[in-house]
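Module 6 notes. Inverse folding takes a fixed backbone as the condition and produces residue identities as the prediction. Think of it as a translation problem where the source language is geometry and the target language is the twenty amino acids. Below is one complete input and output pair. Work through it position by position during the lab.
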């Protein structure tokens, strides 16, 4: 089960360069239900996500590089590329996604939680702007759609 909240941001942290960063590339084979392929550095995954906004099922299956390159060509919509920064925030980690290409200058912060209670009691830092957890438009599967 994945439990996460999503936020837009007021401004990027001044010290962003000090945090670990990875380049992610992903495409969606299906958006209902969500079936995604992702490259994260030298690792490749096929992911299934169930329905839901803050909490939903998620299963990750490893892929070979060859399988990833075969499947990414089958993706519907745009291929999403983003830089993901990992920023400590108390007992949590903020995954700050800076989107590249046609989705630039979009920036979304995601925080994952171990329970719904933990998610609901989270106090976001002051550089976060709007909580968009319940807005499906901010799901990457919807951002991948070129028609909306």
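Target side of the pair, the amino acids:
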């Amino acid at each position: 089960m994945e439990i996460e909240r999503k936020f837009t941001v007021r401004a990027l942290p001044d010290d962003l360069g000090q945090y670990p960063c990875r380049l992610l590339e992903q495409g969606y084979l299906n958006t209902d239900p969500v079936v995604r392929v992702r490259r994260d550095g030298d690792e490749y995954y096929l992911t299934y996500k169930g329905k839901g906004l803050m909490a939903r099922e998620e299963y990750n299956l490893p892929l070979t590089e060859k399988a990833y390159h075969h499947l990414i060509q089958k993706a519907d919509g745009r291929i999403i590329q983003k830089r993901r920064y990992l920023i400590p925030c108390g007992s949590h980690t903020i995954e700050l996604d800076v989107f590249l290409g046609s989705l630039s200058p979009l920036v979304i912060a995601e925080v994952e939680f171990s329970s719904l209670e933990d998610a609901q009691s989270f106090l976001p830092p002051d550089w976060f702007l709007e909580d968009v957890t319940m807005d499906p438009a901010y799901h990457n599967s919807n951002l991948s759609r070129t028609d909306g």
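Reference fact for the lab report: The mean pLDDT is 95.
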